[in-house]
Amino acid sequence: MKAYEIGDTRNGLALRMVERPMPVPGPGEVLYRIRATGLNARDMTLLLGLGREPGPETRVPLMDNAGEVAGVGPGVTRVKVGDRVAMTHYWQWLDGAWDVKMREQDFAGTRDGFLAEYLIVPEAPLVHLPDEMSFESASTLQSAGLTAWNAVIESGRARPSDVIVTLGTGGVSVFGLQWAKLIGARVIITSSSDAKLERMTALGADNTINYRATPRWSDAVLALTGGRGADIVLNTVGMGEMEQCLLACASGGRVMYIGANPVAPDRKMPTPTALANFPNLIIKDLTIKGVTVGSRRMFEDMLKAMAVNKIEPVIDRVFDFADAQAAVAYMQSGEKLGKVVIRID
Question: CA-to-CA distance for 150 and 26, rounded, in angstroms?
Fold first, then answer.
């Protein structure tokens, strides 16, 4: 079978294709034939070797996935050969509250990910895909789709009367827009590109703000809401924007902290050293909530909502398996709107 490994990151990104033996499932395990995967901001961090000592790396990257069951080990009961499935990359989080110990079992983080033709996975995190959902669509959901679902629906507890602000036009932001409009909320989007903002308006955004033209975009949010502010802000780009996120909030507002680093090369995030205009969290009753993707149960709820409401992910481009390097380069360019998918035939 073919797979990609991260390679030697001492001189930057070094993705390489390799041949590996066909794996065999053991008790409680599934031979997963991967049909599609995709790229996320966290994938780029791992591919570039950030956050760990640079050097040779043989791990298979990428967290998103969709495919079918190609074989089962002894004791497997949740799926059978031929089932169309997908799974969460923090596979131990099936339901209930998140525990940081679950991060120790992280597909693409602490073990091989899904940029490969086959992978051995536990049966527990697998979910069945709706019949009408393509592998390409399903492969966009584990990180961006599920994180946005958690931030807006699950942890965010969004209501139809809410104003929701989301930063940028990446995968989480686009899904955030889709989930917010699903419940009838008002959505304000920021971006540095007027062309992308026009596309977000076509997708349902109620208001848009070009943060290059309006660096103090929090003031624009207040103006658009009659001085009240937003109920939920999805911070997908990092701590450098936290002050503005808080300033944009209404009383009782929630900042859902999702992204540690921006992907777009034109967005350089300063690390705040003195939050001189930091709003009083007590007086405004504000909440900052970290969001870590979601559980298997959330994933199943999201899939049901998509099927019932006929919601399709926004996919910018689909690349072939042989063109994975080009997919990564396109992701780095910042040109995309929505998701970048890699099809594995």
Answer: 32
Instruction: Write down the domain spans for the chain.
Output: 2-144+293-343, 156-290
Q: pTM value?
A: 0.93
Q: Are 196 and 169 in contact (CB under 8 A)?
A: yes
Task: Report the CATH superfamily, name and number, of domain 2-144+293-343.
Answer: Medium-chain alcohol dehydrogenases, catalytic domain (3.90.180.10)
Q: Kindly state the DSSP code that residue 315 receives in the 8-state scheme.
A: E
Phi, psi at residue 317, to the nearest 5°? -150, 150
CATH of domain 156-290: 3.40.50.720
Please write the tens of the pLDDT for every residue from 122-161.
Answer: 999 999 999 999 999 999 999 999 999 999 999 999 999 9
Do 2-144+293-343 and 156-290 have matching folds?
no
> What are the angstrom distances between the C-alpha of 322 and each of 18, 115, 216, 239, 319?
12, 11, 43, 36, 8
What pLDDT, in 10s, does the model give residues 146-200?
A: 999 999 999 999 999 999 999 999 999 999 999 999 999 999 999 999 999 999 9
Is-contact 166 236, C-beta < 8 A? yes
- CB burial readout 92-108, b (16+ within 10 A) else e: bbeeeebeeebeebbbb
The answer to whether the beta carbons of residues 178 and 311 sit under 8 Å apart is yes
